[in-house]
Specification:
This protein is mainly beta and 789 residues long. It is built from three helices and 68 strands. The relative contact order is 0.05.
């Protein structure tokens, strides 16, 4: 073992030599120590360094025209504290191969120009619990919470092939310009992949930033599941203009890209233009699909270019509220739950050569909805639609108090079979209310082309994951409207198109479902779908765990569930990041029991996770191998959507609820009595806070008294049509139970009190809540209560 005192002395001598050295001196095989300062070319000795920041950063770098090569050194902080590598007032400094974890920030760059980060890893630094909310006004940079990399007050910073995952933020760019971040991986972060604040003319290009949302991919994200708490793969705030977001994989973000201006208007009494808006940004050729909210959201900003993006399989493909002069061209918005595009009070936006569609026809649906919301006088007007393709809906564009011009668009009315099956009123390309103005020229309504043989050639002839795949067919036209290519009904990320061929990206994961061994491909040529092309899938990385089936899915309470896949070497199954109880395991299979606490029909993110140290097969591992395994992070499969069905009559329910007395005076106690029955075949877990029986002051809420929700349990809520100082629509009064569980078929009665303070007649109501999931009984037992002065 090295003598620590000698090491510290050596470090002091080295640092002194560096500070006194002449320009161009080189230091090699230098060990890291706490607070060391580097300003000349240095190569760090490969080792694992467990160090803490005592002030200014564990490693402090400054100077000009130098290269610091970490060459396999791993810097591990004490856990969520301090700065790993702090670069200040530097010019043209290059940092290579650094690996930093366990700090507040892995790397901080401040007041510097031309710094390069090459092949650095800054993962697993500070994180906040899933569901944490921060100030979303955009008034502040919100860079105090930590993550991988933060760039402040700097210019022309360059990050290439860097990885920054599993923490709060991947990379923050604050008050900085001309930075280029490319070919990196900023995935699985709980807040932002990248955040730009008061930062203009930066480029984020050819990066991966998937599953940037609360829970970082471990939790099922949906409007009926976990909220996403304004997490995004790309967030752009506060006077961040003329940035280029290009060629990135941004799937499964809370939003993929969100540009907002939440700081209020410049002129009081108006809405636009906003203060500190982020204008003239370019969003080009990104895969923004599978957002539970908006693939792309652009609010209250001007002159955004949205071009060539895949905005499919989201709740909204695009939400462009109060946007002005956006150019939206050559995007695909397919199978979005609500609308392909929705805009309130937008002005002068142009839509050119986009494809908007529902593969399963919606006889009463609309693809694009443009409206004046009635809250203010900002007009909804000046829209132009040219050369777009619409299919699968009753209406292409629906207008509400809006002015729009449509020229040369195509609305496909479905194949002969689809038209015969539809029992709806006549489809239309555009319709509007009596407050709308429609100008329509040379648009066409046409039947969809019947399935055609594309005579395809695939290069390569198998679908290799994490690869570009070229589909060749004479049926692919070099038109201004992009072709849509689908794999098993999933629109993929088309990267380039020319006459006779289209190239698309096959991701490493198979989206949110088990990975098959073969698959059907088809493409839409602007008039109809080709016949499916069946081909095999090759997993390009055999070290990554891969789930091929989950049976049954959906499951019911009491079921045993079997997960089948490859590269399962010791491990367990997680449901929303909670380990399940393993019943058995074999070669490539794991069977688990559905956990107690499933109270409602629920969806989960199911993940297979390697258990570190299990299944290696070596009885006498060397000390080095033991340490390497101890240091390793568990391997995880891509998340799979897994459903549990619970029939309504089998869920827990309120049997009764009553408020007494119905007339009382200010300052008196309103008593609420609930009775709950457990209809599940298993015991129901119950919240026991606040301590039973609890009395609320009217001004209090469950948040105010420090109660935290416990997912997988039941609790009770009360609200009224005038909840005092609380927000309208809130449910401020949460009541827990006296016991921790409720056996199957049994009932329990709960009593709580509210000290009323607001005179008048108020309607109170109650709810039974499956914590972290949904209201089971909502707005029940409405009762008029009179409060006298």
């Amino acid at each position: 073992m090295r003598n620590i005192t000698k090491m510290k002395a050596l470090s002091v001598l080295l640092v002194a030599g560096m500070l006194a050295g002449t320009s161009g001196s080189v230091r090699a095989d230098v060990p890291l120590t706490e607070g060391m300062k580097l300003s000349v070319d240095t190569t760090i000795r490969p080792a694992k360094y467990m160090l803490a920041d005592t002030g200014g950063g564990i490693v402090q770098i400054t100077g000009s025209n130098t290269t610091i090569d970490f060459k396999g050194a791993k810097l591990v902080g004490p856990g969520g504290k301090g700065i790993g590598i702090h670069i200040t007032d530097a010019r043209n400094v290059t940092i290579k191969n650094a690996e930093v974890s366990g700090c507040l920030w892995g790397v901080v760059i401040e007041r510097s120009i031309g710094v390069k980060l090459l092949d650095c890893t800054t993962s697993r630094n500070n994180d906040l619990p899933p569901g944490t909310t921060i100030d979303e006004s955009g008034k502040e940079p919100e860079d105090q919470w930590g993550g991988g990399i933060v760039i402040r007050d700097s210019q022309k910073i360059f990050a290439r092939r860097c990885t920054s995952q599993h923490q709060w933020d991947g990379i923050d760019v604050v008050r900085s310009t001309g930075c280029i971040i490319e070919n990196g991986d900023y995935s699985y972060n709980g807040n932002w992949g990248i955040h730009l604040w008061n930062s203009s003319k930066n480029t984020f290009r050819n990066n991966r930033a998937i599953w940037c949302t609360t829970g970082s991919g471990t939790l099922y994200q949906a409007l009926t599941g976990w909220q996403t708490y304004d997490a995004q793969a790309v967030g752009i705030d506060h006077n961040s203009n003329e940035n280029l977001i290009e060629g990135n994989d941004l799937r499964f973000g809370g939003d993929a890209i969100f540009i907002r201006a939440n700081e209020g208007p410049i002129t009081p009494g108006t809405v636009v233009p906003p203060r500190n808006g982020s204008h003239r940004n370019i969003l080009r050729d990104n895969d923004c699909s599978f957002s539970p909210n908006n693939a792309i959201e652009v609010d209250l900003v001007d002159d955004t270019v949205i071009e060539g993006n895949n905005c499919s399989n989201s709740n909204y493909g695009m939400w462009l509220g109060y946007s002005r002069r956006c150019i939206v061209r050559r995007n695909t918005c397919i199978n979005d739950s609500a609308h392909a595009v929705e805009i309130e009070n937008g002005q002068d936006d142009r839509f050119e050569n986009n494809v908007f569609g529902f593969d399963v026809p919606r006889p009463e649906g609309q693809l694009v909805y443009l409206r004046q919301n009635g809250r203010d006088k900002t007009p909804s007007a000046g829209y132009q639609f040219t050369g777009n393709v619409f299919y699968g809906a009753q209406t292409g564009v629906l207008l509400n108090a809006t002015k729009a011009t449509l020229t040369g668009n195509t609305f496909l009315t479905g194949t002969k079979k689809q038209r015969s099956e539809q029992k709806s009123k006549l489809a239309t390309i555009v319709s509007g209310d009596d407050k709308s103005t429609i100008t329509a020229r040379t648009n066409q309504m046409a039947p969809s082309r019947e399935a055609f043989d594309p005579h395809p050639i695939l290069e390569p002839d198998q679908l290799k994951q994490s690869r570009l795949i070229t589909l060749r067919s004479s049926e692919i036209k070099a038109s201004s409207t992009p072709p849509v290519i689908e794999l098993e009904g999933i629109p993929v990320w088309v990267r380039s198109v020319k006459a006779g061929s289209a190239t698309f990206w096959m991701p490493a994961d198979f989206w949110d479902r088990p990975a098959p061994d073969s698959i059907g491909i088809r493409f839409h040529d602007g008039m109809g779908w080709s016949a499916p092309i069946n081909t095999k899938i090759m997993n390009s990385d055999t070290s990554i765990p891969r789930i091929t089936s989950v049976t049954p899915n959906p499951a019911r309470i009491g079921d045993l569930v079997t997960v089948t896949g490859s590269n399962f070497v010791g491990g367990h199954v997680l449901l929303n990041n909670i380990p399940t109880r393993r019943i058995s395991a074999g070669a490539g299979t794991i069977t688990f029991q559905l956990p107690d606490g499933i109270l409602t029909p629920t969806r989960y993110n199911l993940i297979w996770e390697q258990t570190i140290g299990e299944g290696s097969g070596e009885r006498n591992r060397t000390a080095k191998k033991q340490q390497e395994q101890k240091d390793a992070q568990p391997k995880r499969s891509a998340p799979i959507i897994f459903s549990v069905e619970v029939p309504g009559e089998k869920m827990p329910h309120l049997v009764s609820a009553a408020f007494t007395p119905t007339t009382l005076k200010v300052g008196e106690l309103l008593k609420v009595t609930f009775t709950v029955r457990n209809n599940l075949p298993t015991p129901a877990r119950l919240m026991t806070l606040p301590k039973y029986p609890f009395t609320y002051e009217e001004k209090q809420s469950w948040n105010d008294i420090g109660v935290q929700e416990v997912p997988g349990t039941l609790h009770l809520r009360v609200t009224s049509d005038h909840p005092g100082a609380h927000d309208s629509g809130s449910w401020p009064f949460l009541f827990g139970f006296e016991q921790q569980t409720l056996p199957p078929g049994e009932t329990v009665t709960v009593i709580g009190y509210i000290k009323v303070e607001t005179p008048g007649e108020h309607e109170f109501r109650v709810g039974l809540v499956a914590t972290g999931a949904r209201f089971i009984d909502d707005n029940a037992y409405r009762t008029k209560i009179t409060v006298l002065p």
